[in-house]
Amino acid sequence: VGRRLYYKLGRKLCRRDYLRLFGQDGLCASCDKRIRAYEMTMRVKDKVYHLECFKCAACQKHFCVGDRYLLINSDIVCEQDIYEWTKINGMI
To answer: Contact, 51 vs 40, CB < 8 A?
Structure first.
């Protein structure tokens, strides 16, 4: 057992599980504001987002279950905007 425990949402978590569930620094990958323990979040790989921040960086559309997107750095881009987003940002 490790030396440090984290307490969140009434649960005791080891460091690995805390980081897996809540991210490295507790900040939203989109707005860089703190994510509080009671807030609902979305997770993509090692990035954690407030629900209201989990939207397309190009058109600002919020995603629904089953929507396809691409994660580019910390930006989430919907399937319809991927080509234009990468073109505008010099990626193609």
So the answer is: yes
